[in-house]
Amino acid sequence: MSQRYDYLIIGSGIIGLSIAASLKKIKPSAKLLIVDKEEKVAYHASGRNSGVLHAGFYYTADSLKARFTVAGNKAMKEYCRLKNLPINECGKLVVAQNPDELEKLHELERRGQRNGSNVRLIDEKEASTIEPNVKTYKKALYSPDTASVDPTQICRCLQEDLQQSGVNFFFKTHYLGHKDKVIRTTHGEVEADYVINCAGLYADQVAQDFGFGKKYTMIPFKGLYLKYTKNKTDVKTNIYPVPNLKNPFLGVHFTKTVGGDIKIGPTAIPALWRENYQGLDNFKINELFKIAYFESKLFFLNSFSFRNLAFEEMQKYKKDYFVKLAANMVQSIDPKGFTEFTKPGIRAQLLNKETLELVQDFVVEGDKQSLHVLNAVSPAFTCAFPFSEHIVSNYLSA
After folding, report:
1. CA diameter of the chain
2. Could you count the other beta carbons within 10 Å of the beta carbon of residue 98?
3. For 22-81, how does the pLDDT look when each residue is reduced to its tens digit (9 = 90+)?
């Protein structure tokens, strides 16, 4: 028998959960259902990211990321305090290694100031008082508002909030298709007045089934972190390199987790299928062919320097090389202290098939029947609360 809801949300990552929470604020009597093909919330990117709350200085002022990161950082911290969830307010230093990178630090400071982010350039002496182990060329960019949280804890807490407000969840439930307002799933048919697609790695496929996102496809990138188990004290704050501002990856960096652990990463290794975490897990031959086609095209044309990126990232499978990249940002670190890889993650990165460029900002498409969050990459976790309020007020408040 068909079950009827006002809203059906596909995906129980941070974006799906946050949109549901924002909807419930303005429409408390609305009937909401969240479906997810996995057995629990935050199974993919939302539960496998670094846990860093970003501060909003990487992004150009006209981007949605710039608009929501500063507000999202504050909102997520407020939620953690309200729910007594842990926060590690350890800050961040972005370090330079040469004069060219020093100029890029100035650009990051300019971006941060335009975006309302609390950032400032400091000299080597002040940087060493914040992090005695840091190594930088003349100056570093200091972000005191960068912090670390436990993303899985936050998502589970949001799930509890939503269930208490009457939101239903169907787990192990795959989206199969739709006809008008009837959505076919492996849990049966569901009638929904409005569908909100927050399907992450499969958001493009769901969108295309509704007639949206036709010029996009998903190119997955595998992110690995290497944990430092020798101690928790050799690094006290997040330490990042100056990123290549032409692509969306931030480079190998030191992360201080919410529990004080030290890890380095992530990689951005081109994956061969969408959930290519390790070995042949979740292997799908049709995904392999399609992704290999686009990755080959990017490689031979060297779009956005993809060829260079691929060669660089593949080297990071070599532990010594991986550790050396991070070691360049500190005075000393024990290479033998890095002993275990954490749970791998996959970045659901949208590619514009027409321009062969990686899409760096959020992308949302929809109409009166459905809405599709096609690109919600880092810092989507940080941005989740204000981004969701934006979605609800601009697309769903009628």
Report:
1. 69
2. 11
3. 999 999 999 999 999 999 999 999 999 999 999 999 998 889 999 999 999 999 999 999
pTM metric for this prediction: 0.96
In one-letter notation, the amino acid at residue 82 is L
User: How close are the terminal C-alpha atoms of the chain, in Å?
Assistant: 29
Confidence band of 115 (pLDDT split at 50, 70, 90): very high
Burial class (CB in 10 A: 0-12, 13-18, 19+), 184: middle
> 2: pLDDT confidence band, cut at 50, 70 and 90?
low
Closest CA to 326 of 231, 255, 223, 224: 255
Whether omega before 266 lies within 30 degrees of 0, making that bond cis, reads yes
- Cα separation, 64 vs 387, in Å, equals 8
Tens-digit pLDDT profile for residues 143-172: 999 999 999 999 999 999 999 999 999 999
Give the C-alpha separation, 133 to 345, whole Å.
28
> Whole-angstrom Cα distance, residue 219 to residue 224?
17
Amino acid at position 80, single letter: C
β-strand partners of 241: 95
Cα–Cα distance measured from residue 202 to residue 259, given in angstroms and rounded to the nearest whole number:
32
Tokens of residue 219, six digits = 């190119």
